Amino acid sequence: MPQDDSLSQSIHDLLPETGDRKVALERMQELNKLMSYYRCAMMEVVTKFNVLNEQFSLQFDRNPITGIKSRLKTVRSIQDKLERRGLPFSLESIEENLNDVAGVRVICSFTEDVHMLSEALMQQDDIQLIERKDYILNPKPNGYRSLHLIVSVPIFLAHEKKFMRVEIQLRTLAMDFWATLEHQLRYKKDFDFAESMGRELYTCAQLSAELDERMDGLRELVQKQIDGGLDVPEPRRRWVDQSHNLR
Ligand code: GTP
Ligand code: MG
Fold first, then answer.
1. Amino acid 24: pLDDT
2. Taking the mean position of all CA atoms in its chain, how far away is CA 4?
3. How far is the CA of 179 from the centre of ligand 1 (A)?
4. Using H for helix, E for strand and C for coil, what is the string for the chain?
5. Cβ of 75: how many Cβ atoms within 10 Å?
6. Catalytic entry in 30, 167, 195, 213
7. 73 alpha carbon to ligand 2 midpoint, in Å?
8. Which of 6, 137, 149, 165 has the most CB atoms around it within 10 Å of its CB?
9. What residue owns the CA closest to ligand 1's atom 20?
């Protein structure tokens, strides 16, 4: 597994006053282990979504997921976030106070898929929901939309089972398009964003929401045609005919 470059920089902060090298090494290994647990939890969640995509694509003849991205926060950025909040930088503090060390972003085709996938995930009995923020139903004032879940997933180690938190963001292609560009333009930058630019971004967010709605309408129409037996692709018709003949 690749090691985090900022890891060694952070060791200094984990060192006790005495600066004991042996203690420093032990703490570095502990931190490395914790990061690897987060990486495993992230992989578990990615696999769960890949399995759901496989299953739903068989059921509906299309992929509800167009892409999955995952990222592990760097030790440097973990440290900065804890510092910003006035919290100590320690292994216990990381696990207790941060929900987004491991992050998974699922890009869906339609808004309907976002809800379908989140419900299917939460029905799995090994996963626990810690927090749910529905920025699709209640967009942020700047227009940001996505469904955020903080979950706790078990990872199975050689001799124990450990629950780790993962932040999941589910959004459509249109939501991702807006959020990615908005992030580039503004998110967490220090300068004052002109009000008119904010308004323009908000208008773009509304346009992207309208696009999602209209595409969802089209999806419903196609589904109705398929359900009603109209325009069913040739192979499926043949299968329906054969099953009929069997009776
Ligand atoms: P953080 O402490 O920054 O993680 O925020 P939070 O704990 O209030 O969580 P929230 O669910 O609001 O946001 C978490 C993540 O969602 C961020 O790290 C971004 O990836 C994404 N996000 C939230 N708001 C915005 C936004 O306005 N624009 C963009 N582009 N992304 C956002
Ligand atoms: Mg965050």
1. 79
2. 21
3. 10
4. CCCCCCHHHHHHHHCCCCCCHHHHHHHHHHHHHHHHHHHHHHHHHHHHHHHHHHHHHHHHCCCCEEEEEEEECCHHHHHHHHHHCCCCCCHHHHHHHCCCCEEEEEEECCHHHHHHHHHHHHCCCCCEEEEEEECCCCCCCCCCCCEEEEEEEEEECCCCEEEEEEEEEEEEHHHHHHHHHHHHHCCCCCCCCCHHHHHHHHHHHHHHHHHHHHHHHHHHHHHHHHHCCCCCCHHHHHHHHHHHHHC
5. 26
6. 167
7. 9
8. 149
9. 169
Contacts of 24 (CB under 8 A, 6+ apart): 11, 14, 15
> In terms of DSSP bridges, do strands 161-172 and 102-108 run parallel, antiparallel, or are they unpaired?
parallel
Q: CA dihedral defined by 200, 205, 211, 212, rounded to 10 degrees?
A: 180
Asked if residue 68 lies in contact with residue 49, where contact means CB atoms within 8 angstroms, the answer is: yes
pTM for the predicted model, two decimal places: 0.86
Place of tokens 């045609």: 225
Give pLDDT, residue 21: 77
Backbone angles phi, psi at 74, to 5 degrees: -75, 155
| Residues in the chain with pLDDT values less than 70 | 1-19, 187-191, 229-247
Q: State the pLDDT at residue 14.
A: 62
